[in-house]
Write a structure and sequence with these properties.
about 300 residues; 6-stranded mixed sheet; elongated; 15 strands
Length: about 300
Amino acid sequence: MSEPAIATSGLTKRFRSRAVVDGLELNVPRGSVFGFLGPNGSGKTTTIRMLLGLVSPSAGSIQVLGEAMPDRGARVLPRVGALVEGPAFAPYLSGTANLLRRDTADRYAPGATRRARVDAALERVGLSHAASKHVRAYSLGMKQRLGIAGALLTDRDLLVLDEPTNGLDPQGTREVRSLVRSLADEGRTVFLSSHLLAEIEQVCTHAAIMRTGRLVAQGSLDELRQASGPRLAVETPDSSLAVSVLARFGLEAVVTGSGVEAALGESAPPPEELAAALVRDDVRLRGFAVRASSLEERFVELTGEGFDVEQ
């Protein structure tokens, strides 16, 4: 196996006596689009800031692109593009002028190709038409795309994006998703923090889930879905009765909009036996299916919290 793009061991950050990140063991495969998930306050942004050397860890170690952070930051950071906690730009300058200013401040960026690289970055995020406008006239979504353009000014092996579709309209969101996929197709690793389930499901190949500063699961999306096992979905107008019947078999069913659902553990009886029991007890069935768990269900199971599923 190739060396991971990001690996942490026992990574911990304490503020006073409270650990906001606690013993994090993160492994981000090279070339992956890695979704970093968790409710607000779960430690995602603090983790990202430690990965980039913006905050010193209280304990543990960090490897980014095979180098120790923050000690080897001067070697690592020129290979990393980042958009963290929203972009910040001079409002009285144009989009082009802001990116030229940012690129000039990068001592590793070649000056001879600066203007061409700025124009290419603006075109790639769909802002060529607004390149000469003052940033104060940009919408939130346009500012977000300008921030991503800033992360793409030079060739990067790793992109760290914190909520990159924040404020984008549906079309802008689709454009950013397509951009993220193309970056991964070119061999880059993309580390994507988000609270939007649709974004993770459509873009990411791998994910990690945080809860109150601890890592509770990580792996490929298929591995995360399969970890919960299959689920029984029953469509019926007799939800309360169905819950009671399934409870006799040790299944904890929850009422949904169309009926009930329950996780099928290893000790659960065969689905056909459950269907027969429901019919015997006069539960009217409109639908009966066994399906794989979704990423949303796995998230709720691990964190006890809901997930934003719509844009």
